[in-house]
Amino acid sequence: MFFDRPESGELAVLVHLELSAVDNPEDPREFEELALSAGADPVAFIFGQRSSPDPRTFVGRGKLEEIQRTVKEHGAQLVIFDHNLSPSQERNVERELKCRVLDRTGLILDIFAQRARTHEGKLQVELAQLRHMATRLVRGWTHLERQKGGIGLRGPGETQLETDRRLLRARIDSIEKKLGKVRRQREQGRRARSRSELATVSLVGYTNAGKSTLFNRLSDAEVYVRDQLFATLDPTMRRVELPNVGQMILADTVGFVSHLPHRLVEAFRATLEEAANATLLLHVVDAAADDRLALMDEVQLVLEEIGAAELPQLLVYNKIDLLQDMAPRIDRDADGVPRAVWLSAATGAGCDLLVEAIAERLGEQMVRGQLVVAPDQSRLRAQLFEMNAVQREEYRDNGDCALQVLLPRNDLQRLLAPYREAQGAPRWQPLDD
């Protein structure tokens, strides 16, 4: 935006270091997938080991020379590090290699920028990019860091660097105000869904676990699906009818990734709040992944950061078509409550079991029955229709309205509470399923 920098190319050299001081290292395979998702064409993958990063160039002198030789040999224009570099480290490495250098956060930001489709998604990505750029602004303007003397260069006024910082701050403030408006609109939508008592089920999970494929399978939607990281950025919602439960809202959300940059979590807070306010979370797991337990832990860390770790969860082990001799099934706890479903969203095998499990989890406190409402209790009838709880309605000769309803037990008790002491209270009769 404000940089005089080399144009990026697709030929890229990937760099991954094993750091003994890091307890939870990055996965080199995931790093390569991230690079491919960004459109890079990796020509070399350089590995190394260090006890801790070099404070000046992250890698040591010998490894830096190896990278330099590799860049020249392949004519690469881009070097991507599977680590987060400080602004000074990124600047020093660029100066040595004479090509563009990108760290892990910058790589993920670039992928997000390519995937954003909606106005909100683009605003969120731009905010994260600007915040990231603000720490690195000095790189492009070291020659204008301070006013120099000389003919035509003396006098008051801002340096170019100060001007760019001011413009960045103004743009960041503008985007934050727009996203604040989006957050308020989302909150209004959630309140409206809460008033109508529609349960919200949010799909969460590691990126490329198959959430959007499962979303399409359950909702007959046409959400963008592709076998790549971060194929979905913008949340999508659909009403879905569940047997014996009624309607619910199904929400597809952005995928998580290990060490998700904090700037992205902050920028996408409005989107992630859809997961934080869900009635039930469907934690979609790639059952064929060798490190699926570690990936599940990473998802839990992000859920904790957005305040959603304590919400009810139903595990969904997807991609069983990639496993040998694995049939769809529901795993239950000692009380018979569904805790996990094994299925394949790609083939549809086991999706009926998932619907059954969701219905059971959402219907744990559901009651079905007939409620007879007198003509002067039309407000109660209107409330039941507003909650989408009415399944059938019949009028009797005396003007009474017989409603067959399905709703949470707590809501039924709340609605009937004002009529308990009244003459001619509504008559409730449970119905067998």
TrEMBL record:
Q: What is its main location?
A: cytoplasm
UniProt-annotated location(s): Cytoplasm
What InterPro entries does its record include?
EFG_III/V, G_HFLX_dom, GTP-bd, GTP-bd_M, GTPase_HflX, GTPase_HflX_N, GTPase_HflX_N_sf, HflX_C
* Sequence ranges assigned to domain Hflx-type G in this UniProt record: 199-366
A molecular function annotated in GO for this UniProt entry is: hydrolase activity
Q: Does the keyword Iron apply?
A: no
Coiled-coil region list: 158-185
Q: Which UniProt keywords apply?
A: Coiled coil, Cytoplasm, GTP-binding, Hydrolase, Magnesium, Metal-binding, Nucleotide-binding
According to the record's subunit comment, the protein's assembly and interactions are: Monomer. Associates with the 50S ribosomal subunit.
Which family does the entry's similarity section mention? Belongs to the TRAFAC class OBG-HflX-like GTPase superfamily. HflX GTPase family.
State its role.
GTPase that associates with the 50S ribosomal subunit and may have a role during protein synthesis or ribosome biogenesis.
Q: Which NCBIfam families does this UniProt record tie to the protein?
A: GTP_HflX, PRK11058.1
Protein name stated in the entry: GTPase HflX
Q: Which organism is it from?
A: Microbulbifer halophilus
The organism that produces this protein has a lineage beginning with: Bacteria, Pseudomonadati, Pseudomonadota, Gammaproteobacteria, Cellvibrionales
